[in-house]
Task: inverse folding
């Protein structure tokens, strides 16, 4: 059975408890690595500048306390194998649904199950639906 490395675990611990539980369930079946949880201002702005994020600091679910988003990739990593990312995302989304977690994936922002209309692919990205409202409530 696959399991997370110490590095993946330390990143995952910066995320909301429901994301932690989800990822710990996913890794039991699908080998994967956690590459991003909570981000500081410098990291977020660098990702924006490099075109790897559409969000400035404070506009991303990665920027708040326990992160409302997690970036997870199938292992071993092959960034060119986008079909594998989509397969992995389907598994993650289905597992989340079974756990009662409403999730959005960066390969299908509008959640319509059509990937061709996506304008910005962030294939490792999974975020909790309604995170903005949760941030405002605190």
Result:
């Amino acid at each position: 059975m696959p399991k997370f490395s110490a590095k993946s675990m330390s990143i995952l611990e910066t995320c909301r408890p429901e994301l932690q539980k989800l990822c710990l369930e996913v890794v039991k079946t699908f080998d994967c690595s956690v590459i991003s949880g909570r981000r500081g201002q410098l990291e977020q702005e660098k990702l924006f500048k490099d075109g790897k994020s559409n969000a400035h600091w404070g506009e991303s679910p990665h920027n708040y306390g326990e992160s409302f988003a997690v970036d997870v990739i199938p292992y071993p990593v092959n960034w060119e194998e986008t079909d594998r990312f989509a397969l992995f995302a389907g598994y993650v989304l289905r597992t989340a649904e079974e756990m009662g977690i409403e999730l959005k994936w960066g390969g299908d922002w509008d959640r319509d199950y059509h990937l061709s209309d996506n304008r910005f692919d962030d294939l490792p990205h999974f975020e909790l639906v309604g995170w903005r409202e949760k941030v405002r409530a605190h």
Q: What stands out?
A: The radius of gyration is 14 Å.
